[in-house]
Write a structure and sequence with these properties.
The chain has helices spanning 3-13, 27-43, 125-135, 144-157, 168-178, 184-192, 196-208, 223-228, 275-280, 300-313, and strands at residues 16-20, 48-51, 77-81, 99-104, 115-118, 210-211, 216-221, 251-257, 263-269, 284-285, 289-294. It is an alpha/beta fold and 320 residues long. The chain folds into 2 domains: 3-192, inorganic pyrophosphatase (n-terminal core) (Alpha-Beta Complex), CATH 3.90.1640; 196-313, Diaminopimelate Epimerase, Chain A, domain 1. Strands 6-7-8-9-11-10 form a 6-stranded mixed β-sheet. Helix 1 (3-13) packs across helix 3, helix 2 (27-43) runs antiparallel to helix 4 and helix 3 crosses helix 4. This is Phosphoesterase, DHH family protein.
Length: 320
């Protein structure tokens, strides 16, 4: 029995299904979680299906999260999508269900769950949800709104098909989703649009970034900068790719100071592997796209030296 068939049989078995995703969600977290929920609701209208976690204003156009009581978890199937490790799961009640399934495309360093389906070669978890649908041979249909959400997740995690994880299979899944009745161009435009404060912050980033001689770039966005531009951490996502557009840059980091003085690190690369560096700073992720955390700014100079060393040792060519 394939793992996809095993997951489908668990979905058939349970009357209550609760789907989680990671904290500080991106379009793929929302798309895979809520797209899967919509597929299950459509094919099993008698089941109780919930999508839970903190609502994020900027992603409300994809879907809304639901509030449920603790007792709903009794005898429930819990599915967690797009979340590499348990500390990152949004809503810690995920462990209260009867059966737990992990569906993810990050390196499998925390193989939690009664079923753990991880494909680190997939472009996105949204792509994997369609792989699940296709693997069970016509037993699951995909409603148009689910296709819309999964397309948003796929496009979001591939950077509109610019990242290395985009494969011919990814494009076939995108084509399959686009056969449904939704406006793909509108989703592309939404994912490419930024609010005026973010545009002004982008100008600040380009003006104040630093690029080392070895091609490592970084910028520290202190609290006073965030407050000046009236930007919250969740709104900095469009800023992250900017440094990578510069030809000379091999790898880069946006360091965003939080309200408590800690720093969230968004780390990206065109070739040098950076997820091992992220692990040194309470983080992790994909080889070319990771995140990390610092309790304060004390270790920022040390971190920048390590990032620069990674850039210096890289002998391959970047994607530019």
């Amino acid at each position: 029995m394939s793992i996809e068939t095993n997951i489908f049989e668990q979905v058939e078995k349970y009357e209550t299904i609760i789907i989680h995703r990671h904290q500080r969600p991106d379009p793929d977290a929302y798309g895979s979680q809520c797209g899967l929920a919509a597929i299950i609701r459509s094919n099993f209208p008698g089941k109780k299906v919930y999508q839970v976690g903190e609502n994020v204003h900027g992603l409300a156009w994809i879907a809304e999260q639901e509030k449920i009581e603790d007792d709903v978890y009794k005898d429930a199937l819990v599915i967690v999508t797009d979340t590499a490790n348990q500390p990152r799961i949004d809503d810690k009640r995920y462990a209260k269900g009867k059966f737990l399934i992990k569906i993810d495309h990050h390196p499998n360093e925390d193989p939690y769950g009664d079923i753990c389906w991880v494909n680190s070669h997939a472009s996105s978890c949204s792509e994997m949800i369609m792989d699940l649908v296709n693997a069970v041979g016509g037993q699951l249909s995909v409603p148009d709104d689910a296709a819309r959400m999964l397309y948003a997740g796929l496009v979001g995690d591939t950077g509109r098909f610019m990242y290395d994880a985009t494969t011919p299979h990814t494009m076939r899944i995108a084509s399959q989703l686009m056969e449904h009745n939704f406006a793909a161009a509108v989703i592309n435009q939404k994912l490419d649009s930024i609010a005026l404060p973010v545009a002004r912050l982008a100008a600040y980033v380009y003006e104040n970034m630093t690029i080392t001689k070895n091609g490592a770039a970084y910028i520290v966005l202190a609290r006073e900068v965030m407050e000046k531009f009236e930007i919250k951490d969740a709104s900095t996502a469009p800023i992250v790719p900017l440094l990578g557009k510069i030809v000379e840059v091999k790898c880069w980091t946006i360091l965003v100071q939080q309200k408590d003085g800690s720093f969230r690190l968004r780390i990206r690369s065109k070739g040098p592997v950076i997820n091992e560096l992220a692990k040194e700073y309470a983080g992790g992720g994909h080889p070319l796209a990771s995140g990390a955390f610092m309790p304060d700014g004390e270790k920022i100079p040390e971190y920048i030296k390590k990032l620069d060393a990674i850039a210096a040792s890289y002998t391959g060519e970047s994607n530019d």
